[in-house]
Amino acid sequence: MRLKTGLLGLCLLAGTAGAADLYKWKDANGVTHYSESPPAGQKFEARRIDSRGGVGLAQEETGAAKESPQCTQARQNLKALSDSRPVMQDTDGDGKPDAKLDESQREAQRNLADAGVKAYCPQAGG
C-alpha cells in the first residue's frame, strides 16, 4: 500500500513538473527575448507550457513582474508574525506545531521574514 501511495505521488509530481511559464518581450532595440523569468518594468507576454507541449493562453502584462513564490511566502510570514495571534512551531519534527513562539523568538522570525521581503520582493519605483 505504501508503494502504491508513493508511486501515485510521483505520478502527480511528474505531471506538474513539466509545466513552465515562458516570457516574451522586446528590448529597446526591438530584439525579441524569451526567458523563464519576466523582465522587470517592461511589457511582456506570458505563456504557460505544459509537459505535453500544450500552450496556455497568452497574457500581456506591463510594469513590474509577477511576485515570486519566495516573496509571497515572506509577505505571508511577516503578516502572521505581525498579528497578535499566537504563532506555533514544530519543535520535534513530526510535522505538527507543538510549541508557541515566545516574544523574542517571534521578533527574530519577524526580522527574518522582513529580510525575506527585502530580498525577494520587487521594490516599488526601483
UniProtKB/TrEMBL annotation:
Feature: compositional bias, Basic and acidic residues: 93-109
Keyword Signal attributed: yes
Signal listed as a keyword: yes
InterPro entries hit by this protein: DUF4124
UniProt cross-references to Pfam families, sorted A to Z: DUF4124
Keyword list, A-Z: Signal
Ranges of residues in domain DUF4124: 10-43
Protein name (Swiss-Prot/TrEMBL): DUF4124 domain-containing protein
High-level lineage: Bacteria, Pseudomonadati, Pseudomonadota, Gammaproteobacteria, Lysobacterales
